[in-house]
Design brief:
Helix content is about 60%, strand content about 10%. It contains six helices and four strands, in the order ααββββαααα. Strands 1-2-3-4 form a four-stranded antiparallel sheet, with helices on one face. Strand 3 and strand 4 form a beta hairpin. The model has no long low-confidence stretch (mean pLDDT about 95).
Length: about 220
Amino acid sequence: MFLIYTAGIFYWFEAEKEVRVLCSIFAEGKSVEMVRKTLDTGNLLNYSDKDKGITVNSIYTLNSAECTISLSESTAVIESVYRQSFRLEIAAGIVAAVTTFLLAGFQLLLSFGLPWGEFAWGGFHKELPKSLRMGSFVSFVLLTVGGFSVLSSIGFMELISSLGNRIIIPLLTLLFMGSVAGNFNSKSEKEKMIMIPVSIILFCTYIIVCINVFG
């Protein structure tokens, strides 16, 4: 299932890139024959004639990436316009960042001694001992940095460099992958009820952000 999901995300980004890049090369005056020959080289797109023009999109992006090529009466390109109605990396990044900050806040409260320990760290303690409270504070710092890294990677801010994002985001992706397994093996039903969905959401969204960072 994980491989199918990852492959689907990879194809989404590759198909979007294919439509966008090909659309950018259809300058004014290019012949329709050249346009069709170029489009025929695409592996992940489809195109159709539409009202004195050609519409290009891809099922791999659920047709959210589209290029509209307007043609003159002499079948030459007037203009080509690329539109993207849905940005997968932006949507995933927002969900990832918000969830990360919420989890960071939860870990901060645990580090202050709030009696919610049954929802974390295996659920063995209602109020965490000092060692685990320190662990929660470290988690708070790491998650906060991760949330800002996600926002930086999708262009909401420039707090963390692209090199930093390429280090932080893959590390957190691996961390959340381990978190999914760990939460499934937890002996605390309360932790399973809350943290399994949270860790799955984080893992799935961070995969998208991670692929986009290296795309």
